[in-house]
Amino acid sequence: MQSGPREIVTPFRPIPLDVPEAMAPNEFFNSTENLDDLMHNNGLLTNPENLLLYRKALGHSREFDTSIIYNSSKCILNPLGRPVRRTQVPVDVKHIWNRMNQIIIDYMVECYPDPESHLLLAGEASLDATWPLTSPGVPSIRMLHNHFMVFSKDELRAAAPADPKNPNLTDGGQHSLFEAYMHDVYREFFDRALDLELLWPVGEAGSRIELTGYPQGLPSWEIQGGVATLEEVGFWNEYDEILKGFMDFYRSFFSQVSTRNAPMLDDLYFPEHVENVLLFNNDFLKTAKKVRDRCIVDAAYANAIRWQPAFKQLIYRNDEDKLIVTISQNSIGNAITELLGVVVKRIPDAAAYERFEPQLIEQLLEVRRRLIEADLGEGIETPYWPG
User: Fold this and answer.
1) DSSP structure class, residue 270
2) What is the pLDDT of residues 47-80, one digit of tens each?
3) Dihedral angle sign, alpha carbons of residues 225, 228, 233, 235
4) Is the pTM of this model over 0.70?
5) For residues 220 and 207, is the Cβ–Cβ distance under 8 A?
6) What CA dihedral angle connects 145, 336, 268 and 250, to 10 degrees?
7) Sign of CA dihedral 327, 329, 330, 334
8) Terminal-to-terminal C-alpha distance of the chain
9) 281-286 contacts: CB < 8 A, separation 24 or more?
C-alpha cells in the first residue's frame, strides 16, 4: 500500500449551545459559560488543581478520544492571561498532570498493544497568545489542554488519501522555516543545550509512521524503557527540557526577525548556547533577515507571524513499538493528529456517533476509575454517566 497522509471521517453529536449574536464561535468557546457546559455535559473528572478530564464532544477518533484541560476559566477571566504551555503551569499542578498523563498513556498501551493495529498519541498544542481569537486555525478553547487518541490502522488504510497540499499538513518538513532554512543549527542547538538520559535522538526513519509517511523532518527522541519510563519524574523533567530548548530557539529567532541584531533575551533557559550556537550562526541570522524583509513589504504575511512560542509536543508509538517524543513549530494551526499525517473531517451525525459511543464511554469511565483510585480527582455526573 502506498504511504501517504489519510483523511478519515468522524461523526459527532451536535452541541446544543447557541453562540451569542455578533460573537465568533471560538470566542464563545473560550468563555466560562461554555466551559461550564463542557464540564456538565462532557466532564468525567475534576480535581482541586483545576484539571478537568472530559470527553471530546467534537472528537478526532471514534476509537479512544479524551482530553485534560487546565480549566482556568473562572480564576483567570482574561483569555490572554491563561496558561497555554506546560512551562506556565504551577509546579504542584504539573506534578498531578504528569501522573494523569502517565496513567492514561499506560491504559492506552494496555488496551491497544499492537502497533500494527493501532496508532496512539498523547500531547498538547500551544498557541501564540498574540494570535487573534477570530483567526482561522486558532484552537477553540484557549487554554492548555492535552489530547489522548487512538486510531485504528485498518480505518486509516481504508481511508481516502488526504491532499498533500493541505496547508495543515505542511508544518513538519515541507514549508517550516526551521526545517527548510535552519535544519542543521536547529538540531545542533538541541544536541548541545539538552542533557538527556532517558530520551535518545532518533532519525527520521525511526520516527516515521510508514502508513502515513509522517512526521516529516522533525527532531525526535525515543523514550528509553518505553511506557514504564513515564512513571519516572526524570522523564517528565526531560520532556520539559525539550520544550524549553524549543522555546529558546523560537523566541530568539523571532526576536531577530522583529529587530535586526537584537540583544540576547534576558530570560532564556539556555543563554550560553543561544549566544554561542544561534547568534553567531549565518543560517539562523540570514533566515531572520529573509522573514523580516518580507514582513516589511507584505502585510498579510506579517500578520500571520506567530511572534510568541506556538508548538505541538507529542508522545506517540512508532511502527517498532517504541514511544517517541517530537515537537513541531505550530506555524499554521493544524491539529495535532496532522503531525502524524491523519486529517480528521468531522461531520454532524448523531446516529452514527451513538453507534460507537457506548464503547468509547466504557473506556473513558475505566480511565476515570484508575485516576480516582490514584487520588487524582473526583468523578463528575452528567446526563450520560454517573458521578
Assistant:
1) S
2) 999 999 999 988 899 999 999 999 888 888 887 7
3) positive
4) yes
5) yes
6) -140
7) negative
8) 45
9) 281/185, 283/181, 283/182, 283/184, 283/185, 284/182, 284/185, 284/253, 284/256, 285/256, 286/181
